[in-house]
Amino acid sequence: MSKPKVLYIPTVSHTDRVFRKETFERMLDIFDVKINGTNTNWTTEQVAKEIAGFDALVTGWGTPNLSEEVFENADKLRIIAHSAGSVKVFLKNDVVEKYIIPRNITVFSANDAIAINVAESTIGYMIMVSHRFMDHALAIRNSGVWHHPDLPINGQYLTGSTVGIVSASKVGRHVMELLKPFRVKTLVYDPYLSDWEAGKLGVYKVELDDLFAQSDFVTIHAPSIPQTHNMIGERQFKLLRDGAVFINTSRGSVVDHDAMLAEAQTGRILIALDVTSPEPLPSDSPFRKLTNVIITPHISGAGFYGYFTIGSTTLQALEDFFAKKPVVGAVDFSRYDLIG
User: Fold this and answer.
1) pLDDT (tens digit per residue) in 149-159
2) Which domains does the chain have, with CATH numbers?
3) Which end of the chain has the lower number of beta carbons within 10 A, N or C?
4) Is the full-model pTM beyond 0.70?
């Protein structure tokens, strides 16, 4: 019996980042794989030229737009396995409607693996920011003062707090799981989360304004879609209690940055941003100067464990598909408009 043919277009550097050596070698062993083999991303034209005759396509960061030309030539394509996050970068709505859905092509995304890393980072921000660890450490380093008089040495930290999670996305759900040892009360705003599912997750479903008014910590995990553009604005920031911690590791477009800046400048809340709009922030951005704002350069998704899980789940998706098993991580195209 012939092996399924797989066209693998990610670069060598991408492969090294997300595939353990033994995982990649297993893929090469059980499938008939043609690899990119360079550190140059393929163009749309290259994919269109090569795709004929292949049963599967493996994509990754740097994948070009998969145009109609690609799918016109993809005569045997049955699964696209994306060894990265969002597939919307290269799969536009028109090709989804014209080719993916009618041909019943399965599309897998490894975004759950990235979500593991982002969730860990989110918990880290909660602990670091609320304890003011960075501020205390810098005060000792820069001024030599053991207890700086402007910095508190007590407060409402993560344990026993109320945490508000905006969006029960894959990242949001991993955050819920990681929060369990901290004995928190978890509030969730997500209009697509049913009351039954909220109960199953052990969280309280609330409206957005109520979440901001009641939470000690607010963490954003919503996708960047038209419905979420600037969904967090002046009203929500003013509802935050003094000393509350606001964290965004999702997308900068979800937050009205002018409203966030105005509230940040009062000094009454603490903020951690791993994503901004624009990104990076201009060198003269006032956010960069505020001592109650911590900014990191979009690194919350990084980490060996999550990255190598990308590779292992990508391979698992291919194996399961060709074994006629359900593909965990397959994109639900009935909700395509709602994913980031």
Assistant:
1) 999 999 999 99
2) 5-109+304-338 (3.40.50.720), 115-295 (3.40.50.720)
3) N
4) yes
